[in-house]
Amino acid sequence: MSLEGWTAEALLARTVEEGDCLLWKGSMASTNIPTVCVEADARRSVRRLLWQLLNGPIPANRFASCSCGEPRCVAPEHLVLMTKRQIAKRTAKTGVINNHVRVAKIAATKRAASPITWDDVARIRSAPRGQGLAIAKELGVSQMTVWRIRHHKSWRQPPSGFSVFSLGA
Questions:
Q1: Among candidate residues 18, 45, 13, the one with its CA nearest the CA of residue 29
Q2: Which one, 44, 76, 85, 134, has least CB within 10 Å?
Q3: Per-residue b/e over 73-103, b at no fewer than 16 CB within 10 Å?
Q4: Tell me, what's the pLDDT at 164?
Q5: CATH architecture assigned to 8-94
């Protein structure tokens, strides 16, 4: 990635000071990382760009992170290089939800609002091929929803207390 055309001053001009942090006012990735558009379709971490502009290249398997824990902070004094493992340990200590837990919670919320029950899911998955349209009409959902359930693209996690080992008993 080329740093041509970027300066630390230009990036820091897009921040607002709050305490000893400089909070990014621009876009954030879905992973809560400040990002900037560096090319037509390419977004990059602001922290990574700042580190490279101020300190030089980043070694392989290292990521520019922030020591203060504020997701929007890009203060140069707070930038540290960490491995994925170090970031994961720090994240676990602070109680921040990891992506797998977040995705599971979102899926559970969607399922709670759905007209489909786990009994319907079992029926969809055990129905003979070619019954998708009839089941979709009966349940009031799209044929694609039935296809996604049948192929385990949605409704993947059974409710708590359910065990795949109890299926054969």
A1: 45
A2: 85
A3: bbbeebbbbbeeeeeeeeeeeeeeeeeeeee
A4: 43
A5: Alpha-Beta Complex (3.90)
Query: Can you give the length of the chain in residues?
Result: 169
pLDDT of residue 115: 85
pLDDT at res. 157: 67
Strand blocks (E) in 15-149: 15-18, 21-24, 35-39, 42-45, 63-66, 79-82
Domain boundaries, the chain: 8-94, 107-155
Pick from 73, 84, 87: which is nearest to 22 by CA?
A: 73
CB atoms within 10 A of CB 110: 11
- Give per-residue pLDDT as tens, 127-163: 998 888 999 999 999 999 999 999 988 887 665 554 4
